[in-house]
Amino acid sequence: xxxxxxxxxxxxxxxxxxxxxxxxxxxxxxxxxxxxxxxxxxxxxxxxxxxxxxxxxxxxxxxxxxxxxxxxxxxxxxxxxxxxxxxxxxxxxxxxxxxxxxxxxxxxxxxxxxxxxxxxxxxxxxxxxxxxxxxxxxxxxxxxxxxxxxxxxxxxxxxxxxxxxxxxxxxxxxxxxxxxxxxxxxxxxxxxxxxxxxxxxxxxxxxxxxxxxxxxxxxxxxxxxxxxxxxxxxxxxxxxxxxxxxxxxxxxxxxxxxxxxxxxxxxxxxxxxxxxxxxxxxxxxxxxxxxxxxxxxxxxxxxxxxxxxxxxxxxxxxxxxxxxxxxxxxxxxxxxxxxxxxxxxxxxxxxxxxxxxxxxxxxxxxxxxxxxxxxxxxxxxxxxxxxxxxxxx
Length: 393
Fold this sequence. Notes:
Blueprint: H1 7-13, H2 39-47, H3 62-75, E1 79-83, H4 86-97, E2 103-107, H5 112-124, E3 128-132, H6 137-143, E4 148-154, H7 166-175, E5 179-183, H8 188-191, E6 201-205, E7 219-223, H9 225-239, H10 245-276, E8 282-286, H11 296-302, E9 309-314, H12 317-327, E10 332-333, E11 343-345, H13 357-363, E12 369-373, H14 379-391
Parallel strand pairs: 2-3, 2-4, 4-5, 5-6, 10-11
Antiparallel strand pairs: 1-7, 6-7, 8-9, 9-12, 11-12
């Protein structure tokens, strides 16, 4: 019946395992190991564990399995593997798939840690990486070769919110036999159906919208059962990047309100972008849901809504950005996103600080750029707070 249910319902109920006590809230199985009735039973389980049998928490756990099954049902994937963090998911998906001599094409506009994995880690082990402008389909077509093993991109880039055409890039990759890996964290499971649009693998930092309340690190890799269990699982269980049972329980609780939060955040983000349009102290407002966003037509087709994050580029550079940030009272200054609280970030000095200046310039990460991850606070309070802070600039 799960497949017939709407996403919001699947996010609450899919994958539920109840113990003999019939608990309403999912149980946390805080155990690293499991007991076998006989030596023969232990031997049999190590040969082949059944669908509801577990060996060791690094390999699997009932609470973690609930989260994996619920995420797979929500995303429309065959299977999922939950990881210790979003970057464990990104690095695990790439490292488990690739080997020395493989070629990867990636969008250039990426989170700093993703760039590190591609530029420093993969190349160290003999993987060739080509970077392209993610919005340029001709660049993708020219870069993807017959020997390209994978393409990787953020469906909405961090922090300049460029949007990549999942369907078009997937078709280009499929023609060459390359797998498509999409970091979908900004788009969220609410607004994006990346697998249906052609992606082979979807990756989330569950630290962001899925937890949504700033409590725990986590990640998840979604794809076919063969890819998850034959490629990802062996790598992750031997390298130790699996999610803890307690974190899985936190994420299960987050999923129950994910749809409600993301819709409220998106509504607030839309209102803020509209209120700031044309403001004399802002050089540009970047919001995928705005008519003036360069990929607005693609956003309407691919997502339907603009998401929960916008960026503003203030006239006056770093000094103006810092005056603005220090004037905020309702929102908070931090480097996370997707939270129920509105979070302000200055990428040039925090999340993307280590990028060389020429790369910052190429990506549009100016000293005046501020990323605003919009929360679920009252819309009028948020708009008033931002406008007051702009008065200090």
